[in-house]
């Protein structure tokens, strides 16, 4: 059997000294959310900043084999060398960790053992090749600028390219040979859209959901050769009004 290259291995370290879950593995995040910048001090006293948090899939070894679990509020830290699983956060989520017999045994609130991580090189760590995870999430398609323009709410081609380049959008490849087309619906609707005010200037509705104003342009209707340059839809308890 050929040895797996280190670049294809995932390393998860279960640490009682870290206050938050952290990971550099972008492909294992289920979701990502922008957060205010947070400064983190590493074990070597080095400082780095993270601005993204999300849900992360990790594989944990147990007597039944590997199990995939989801960690919440995980900081995305691309400068880290491996994923840090905070035992403090696990405890706050209702799990317990027992360090005994050169292994870390994690159990849920009912006492059921979720996983056992061996003590290796002074760390409770799990080193594995996430083949099953990558196969399950290997859906990667190639799309043109026009296709992404339609799928992403008709944002500008420049914004699409930047989203792909910065990996804000993942698991797809942008067809670099295709150019963006001219869309009549965008040309008619976007110049008429009013900017969203930074401050509220009108009285609040007495009840949540009584009245919602959406500044929308009906691209689907325009594609059906109906003329809508811009529309203000008022959603009320009785339905939707177009004005």
Describe this structure in words.
The protein has three domains: 131 residues, Cathepsin D, subunit A, domain 1, CATH 2.40.70; 43 residues, no CATH class; 62 residues, no CATH class. The radius of gyration is 24 Å and the shape is extended. The N terminus and C terminus are likely disordered. 15% of the residues are buried. It is built from six helices and 15 strands. By secondary structure, the chain is of the alpha+beta class. The N and C termini lie far apart (69 Å).
Could you tell me the number of beta strands?
15
Helix content: 10-25%
What is the CATH C-level name of the largest domain?
Answer: Mainly Beta
**What is the CATH architecture annotation of the largest domain?**
Beta Barrel
Beginning-to-end CA distance, first to last residue: 69 Å
The tally of structural domains comes to: 3
- Shape descriptor: extended
Query: Unreliable segments (pLDDT under 50, ≥5 consecutive)?
Result: 1-7, 132-138, 218-243
Protein traits:
243 residues, alpha+beta, Cathepsin D, subunit A, domain 1, six-stranded mixed sheet, four-stranded mixed sheet, 6 helices, 15 strands, disordered C terminus
């Amino acid at each position: 059997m050929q040895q797996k290259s280190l670049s294809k291995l995932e390393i998860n370290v279960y640490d009682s000294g870290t206050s938050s879950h952290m990971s550099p593995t972008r492909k294992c995040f289920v979701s990502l959310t922008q957060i205010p910048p947070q400064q983190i001090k590493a074990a070597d006293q080095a400082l780095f900043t993270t601005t993204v948090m999300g849900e992360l899939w990790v594989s944990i070894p147990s007597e039944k084999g590997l199990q995939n679990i989801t960690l919440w509020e995980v900081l995305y830290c691309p400068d880290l060398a491996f994923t840090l699983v905070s035992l403090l956060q696990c405890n706050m989520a209702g799990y317990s960790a027992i360090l005994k017999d050169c292994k870390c045994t994690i159990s849920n609130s009912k006492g059921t053992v979720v996983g056992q991580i061996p003590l290796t090189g002074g760390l409770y760590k799990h080193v594995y090749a996430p083949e099953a995870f990558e196969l399950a999430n290997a859906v990667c398609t190639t799309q043109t600028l026009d296709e992404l323009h339609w799928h992403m709410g008709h944002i500008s081609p420049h914004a699409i390219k930047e989203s792909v380049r910065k990996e804000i959008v993942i698991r797809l490849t942008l067809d670099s040979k295709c150019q963006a087309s001219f869309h009549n619906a965008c040309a008619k609707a976007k110049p008429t859209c009013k900017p969203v005010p930074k401050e509220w200037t009108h009285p609040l509705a007495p009840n949540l959901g009584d009245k919602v104003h959406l500044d929308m342009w009906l691209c689907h209707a325009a594609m059906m050769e109906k003329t809508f340059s811009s529309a203000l839809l008022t959603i009320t308890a009785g339905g939707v009004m177009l004005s």
